[in-house]
Task: inverse folding
């Protein structure tokens, strides 16, 4: 008697996929926050300040997302592994800083772009799991992606970069959310939707830096 066939690669549960994205995003964004403290142009930070900016950068967007969803206590406060991940990412970045030397600025750029794509898709995925319409899901995806960096900038005495003319940042996050939702609408596997969204957001951010694509200035 023939045995029932089973898929070689069973589908990944959406919650598992979201958790992976969220944790990787926290680690990467926290590393970026620590590096930002290390090479801040005006202020000199100690380890407490660096960890503070790292936690704000890594967890800020997710906390804002969860508060807006109004579904209980933010995940990063319910699950202590988020804090462990953020601290580990920050300490690793500070340790690696001694090895990269003048390449720290370039490394931070790559880290920031990676976090942007990861968080944009993670936020959109979480909003989507609550049954929200595509537009609120896009807004929460962008909030998750840029919220931590905006909080980091405010705490370090800078205007959040998303409000200033410059290379694509929020626009790259928007692209990541739309690519993810577009792939979902086409019925593509979750791993494909996530990959296209994350890579698309990362690529647009980096291309805007490499080719110096900038948003339009409104002041006349």
Result:
């Amino acid at each position: 008697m023939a045995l029932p066939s089973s898929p070689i690669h069973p589908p990944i549960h959406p919650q598992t996929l979201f958790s992976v994205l969220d944790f990787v995003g926290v680690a990467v964004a926290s590393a970026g926050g620590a590096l930002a403290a290390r090479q801040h142009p005006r202020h000199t930070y100690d380890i407490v300040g660096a960890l503070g900016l790292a936690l704000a950068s890594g967890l800020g967007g997710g906390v804002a997302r969860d508060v807006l969803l109004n579904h209980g206590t933010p995940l990063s406060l319910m699950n202590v592994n988020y804090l462990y991940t953020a601290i580990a990412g920050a300490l690793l970045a500070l340790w690696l800083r001694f090895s990269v030397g003048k390449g720290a600025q370039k490394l931070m750029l790559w880290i920031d772009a990676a976090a942007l794509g990861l968080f944009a898709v993670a936020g959109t995925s979480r909003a989507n799991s609550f049954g929200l319409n595509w537009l609120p899901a896009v807004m929460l995806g962008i909030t998750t992606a840029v919220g931590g960096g905006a909080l980091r900038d405010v705490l370090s005495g800078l205007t959040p970069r998303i409000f200033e003319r410059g290379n694509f940042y929020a626009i790259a996050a928007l692209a990541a959310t739309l690519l993810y939702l577009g792939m979902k609408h086409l019925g593509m596997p979750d791993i494909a939707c996530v990959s296209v969204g994350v890579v698309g957001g990362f690529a647009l951010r980096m291309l805007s830096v490499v080719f110096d694509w900038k948003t339009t200035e409104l002041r006349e």
